[in-house]
Batch of 2 targets.
Target 1
Amino acid sequence: MSFNMLVLTCLAYVIVLFVVASAAERAASEGRASWLRSPVIYTLSLSVYCTAWTFYGAVGYAARSGLEFMTIYLGPTLVFLGWWVTLRKLVRIGRENRVTSIADLISARYGKSNLLGVIVTLLCIAAGAPYIALQLQSISQSFTVFVTDPSEVGLTADPTLIAFWTAIGLAFFTIVFGTRTLDANEQHPGVVTAIAVEAVVKLLALIAVGVFVVWFVATGPADILSRIDAQALPEWHIQPGRWTGLILLSAIAIICLPRMFQVTVVENTNDQHLATASWAFPLYLFLISLFVLPIAVVGLELMPAGSNPDMFVLTLPLYLGQDGLALLSFLGGFSAATSMVIVASLALATMVSNHIVVPLWLRVRSTRNLDSGDMRLLVLSVRRLSISLVLALGYFYYIITGGSEALAAIGLIAFVGVAQMLPALIGALFWRGASRTGAALGLVTGMALWVYTLFLPSFGPGVFLTAQVMEAGPFGIAWLRPYGLFGLTALDPLLHALFWSLFLNALAFCLGSFLSFPSPMERVQGALFVNIYERTGPARSWTRPVAEAEDLLPIAQRILGASEAQSFFRAQAALQGKQGFLPDITPEFLEALELKLSGSVGAATAHAMLAQSVGTAVVSVEDLMAVASETAQIMEYSAQLEAKSEELTRTARKLREANEMLQKLSVQKDAFLSQISHELRTPMTSIRAFSEIMMDTDAMSPEERTHFAQIIHDESIRLTRLLDDLLDLSVLEHGQVQLNVAPVVLRELIDKAVRASNSVQADRKFRILRDRDPEALEIVTDAGRLTQVFINVLSNARKYCMSDDPQMQIKVRQRKGMVEVDFIDNGTGIPRDKQALIFEKFSRLTDEMQAGGAGLGLAICREIMHNLGGDIAYVPGQGGAAFRVSFPLVLQPRESQSKPAEEQTEAAE
Amino acid sequence: MSTSTPPEFLARGSYRIRRLMDAARLLPVFCFVLLILPLMRASPETDAPPTASESVYLFLVWFGSILAVFLISRGLRPALEKRKDDLAKSED
């Protein structure tokens, strides 16, 4: 195929990509880009992992080392299988903090430290250059291989020339699509879509060649398997160290490679996409790897000895006369190389501008007028320049190394380089104690070892390290040999470098973190990153704002552009409930503004810019403690609220109970009133009736008159007694009774009561059983009132005890300063269901006429006993009615008197 | 910031999702072990290695793990959809 034809094909392909990318950009800007944000596009964009190294190099790798090529794809598969642990957290942190690159993530996590940003950027550039060189090399190699026309061989004789023009072309494409605008989220829908298209092209191309090899050259899978065994070389033995080490290395690389970080984290819009990619991306890798070994085997078998196995994908179809297939394969390799270069240079350029150029520029400008000029143009120019720079570095690496024979070796060198970010990155995600000092120490240590043991030797002896140094070590110190550090000579150089760099890196990282004390900003960010899922609100990193919104608007305009910045300010003002463009400068507003700015220029720069305008308002340890105590206060407050609400519940329950009590009392009061009226009315009725008879009846015998007058008299007495009782009860109930407390002998009181009660139903003979000795107690109480109680109890017994041989037993006992007097008769007693009622007012167990009282007797007794500091109770099960009167031996004048009164009051309420 | 402790026992649905999360965490470990099995298969160093059979084995393990992660990820979708903090809170 002619050289011109090939160039034209490439140009046509690039133009198609242009169209796709610009259509996607337009769709995204018009907001109808939902399909652009689909899991499929996301997964396909991840395939930027599979570069020309995969497309060409994997076959070469398989031809040289057998199955070992699979390790490069098995490692990433493992990482995606474990997406739930690492990638999910990484993606979430990246999205919520608007991270723009892996350097930005590490710098943001360790206190928005720009030092770390610079270190990581330099590391990524150093590791990125070989990788880009690899792509340039493979493109120029494929050109060389393809153009077989003798008249044009001259054109392709100089592969560096092809590499040069390829680099120029790729830089142009990347600049046009990657830096058209300064995107707020550093997301590039156009580029991502173009990458997705390229992913399909390279997969189809490789599968097409594979299918051709398996089913057209060979006769099917079984044939291929037997050919594999036939071609297997002793070097194809799986080496345990390399197998395990390379799986781990590629697993690390898929997380740490700047371009993978760009597509996995920065361009991610949704966690769900990751869930899809978790199986779809391993599937992609699976399909890409499936035909590698068959192509290698058939290539080894058919191609003339000495052919470069790295180019089998291309040369095999050409050799077999399948020009169309070869062209497709060429395009596949071309797209694999271009997609890698575009994304990698974009990611590196973002780092360079955000972490090196803009901070430098800010430092220079800060001495002069701060607010002049649109920074967006500056940032964009810096990025364009950086892209060119990155590609130039790749090109120079290619020139200096002169093109390594094995593509795979170069790729692995880059892998070990980016792997140095692993300790800092894992620490950022999972270890709050990881500090800036530790991260910087680890990165520098790892980087230095990588440069010394792998990167510099990769240029070949004599370029940076002389053959003598390689052989005998610097200054002849054998244990400093680049490939045999500290005497570890048994290891393969790659594993040797990987082991030493990562081991000492992790060691320095841990020691630095153990021994240093992080700044408040680091601690804020550390908590924010590690506890990303538990976040309730953004952590405060601004506390004492001193700037005016008017000062901040120009800064924002310089980075975001006038209209974007103004609409952001207006939205923030609206959030605060204000009109116009100038919100209040609250910590929340500063936080939002910083996040917005960091989407464009990175966290460290954004923070530095705001800090410059806002003044010294960055957090201190005191502020951290204040935030913590604020939180503690909130927690305490909520605990208090909880306690209060419990208290309220309790009070409500009490109120409900009190209300029920009141309702019961109200019913009781009504009953009491109706009882009173009834009790008053009965004697009144008979008084009225008999007085009317006496008034109206003229002829009336003196006996009759006397009889009637007697009835009227009796009834009036009953009425008077009732009223006396009521008055007495009322006085007792309200504790207003005057007690005559004096020493007295109990026996005398009982004697008196027995005598007085004898007048009730005097015809009945009661036997009184007493033990006079215990009665000889001297007590201090109100003798009159106590006697009244005794009389009442004894009278009741005389009235109600229906025994033929009635008797009354009186027992006196003394217990703990209390005196108990039991009155036990031998009657039928009081039925159980009535026992609770007898002390209530107006309760009478039997017919009124028989008892002849108002039913207040026992109620009054109880009130008296309460006033005397004692009680009266019915004691069941004593063979008859038994009442126990208990009272203190010595009645304390006030307290003991007022207390029962209070109790009484309470009970009455 | 809630002071309440998470419930000790979960409903069937949440329990399933928790176990799926465990599976998601352990899957790479098991797969890694399966992937290094070829290292333990004896083959005389001098002869050509049994590359064909090993490649068939490795691709089968690979495909099986893709199938497993497909099922797990599909099961975990609900956990991603609802506000993840609820489920993920106690896992770390």
Target 2
Amino acid sequence: MSILKVNNLNAWFGEHRALNNIKLSFDSNKVTALIGPSGCGKSTFIRCLNRLHEETPGASASGQVILQGENIYVAGVDPVRIRRKVGMVFQKPNPFPALSVFDNVVAGLRLAGIGRKSILRDVAEKSLKLAALWDEVKDKLNQPGTSLSGGQQQRLCIARALAVEPPVLLMDEPTSALDPISTAKIEELVLSLKKEITIIIVTHNMQQAARVSDKTAFFLLGELIEFGDTSQIFTVPKEKKTEEYITGKFG
Amino acid sequence: MSPSVPIGDVRSLSSGTLINSTKKATKLIRNFTLKRDVHLADKIFFLGLLFTSFLTVILLASIGLFLYLASEKAIAASGWQIIFRSLWDPVRDVYGVLPVLYGTLVSSLLGVIFAVPLSLGIALFTNELAPKKLATIVGFLVELLAAIPSVVYGLWGIFVLVPLLRGSIQPFLIENLGFLPIFTGPAYGVGMFTSGLILALMITPTISSISREVFRAIPHSQREAALALGATRWEMMRLSVLKSAKAGVFGAIILGLGRALGETMAVTMVIGNRAEIVASLFAPAQTMASVIANEYTEATSEIHLSTLAFVGLLLFMVTFLVNSIAHLIISKITKKHTGTF
């Protein structure tokens, strides 16, 4: 069943058109990988899915993004409400430096107006366990979030995104700033999380896409070239461009 | 008095840290000349730079020394009690500096209290909300405030602010909040409250432009982290900007406070110049800087002159102290948050 549907999505940076009539649909509890060379629009695309794209000065988007039956690109939709339903993890770990590990995890809940200590404590533990970080940080919940290692910080950011229980999680090259061991941990995490949540992950690393995703979409120059099952894309791509990219002819 | 004091004197007079740094510097020079094979030009350049940086230290110390020597007579006449006495009577030649110390601290504090919300508002608006062009214009205009000579602020205070306060604002506050001791008494127009307002205006450019720089240094990814969690713009500013910028903003406020403590001309023109400690903020007062500016040319007795020098020394020490405490607190905050700030 598709949880998120994109129709005729266009995005601009000023006059420059970054996305061209994208049509794509994401299934529940599946991991979809977005691949393509730098500047192909894949990051812009996922930033449209939680309406973060428009926060860049001069950026704009048009088209339909239907999240659980609701088009989030019509007038009157509050992007703040949408962003609570679509979590996001960024390329570089970005915990709030002024907040402790605990406060980082529950930051989203506090924004949503939940302040009960007992609830916050339960959710923090649950989210940190989901993010496979609990055992490593349970004794340093009061230390600053930035005191953790890079890989731990990224899992902290994942826990922070999961704490508000969004149905969809966007990951924008979540391992590109991490070492191989931390990368492997995050990949494991992605696989275990799909029971709970729909994941859309942008990656530069094609092995990663092959390892973690069920579906893969290949972007090039702002166009969606091919979308299909990951096994099919990496073995018998239909498009010549896709084949050239995954065999390393360009990009 | 000539500022050229031999190094030896400075060393014997100044605090332990200076002696320490002098020792360190001597060691540094020795290391530099012995351990490293350097070109002559480098050596000359190094010594030249060393000289210029030491010059500032020597100047600072010699100003302190001058003030101390000049105020010796006042201290000899009434002892250290001079600090705690609240009588300032040039006619009988009896002086206590408590009222002017109080005046400086309270007027500066008022200035900071008024200036902080204004400055943070400006900094947040120009950095986070305003379109680029508007932000540039607003930023430029605010910084222009810093370029206005303080005597012009004083004139504006006398001709615009004082009548306005006397005519409507102070009577209103006295009538409605008069149960508070700080809003009692007649509405003079001039006084502590007015100088607080003028000072706020004068230190706003300092606080807002430094805060703005601090905000600008916060990585964009911090803001996106908050937005992606479902923060509104205000929540984003609170979570990603203000919380991370605490130390920097505190530093900006202290710099503003430092400027307010020493501000002379504008304050002298609107504070009313009466050396008394009164609870009401609407009453005339006197600051350390304004008493020196007001009375120095008319001071005839040696004790009077010497007391004014002592006031100068006190002002010097207060600003020194404020800055030192600020540095201490900033380094503590910075240590606590091991992040970007």
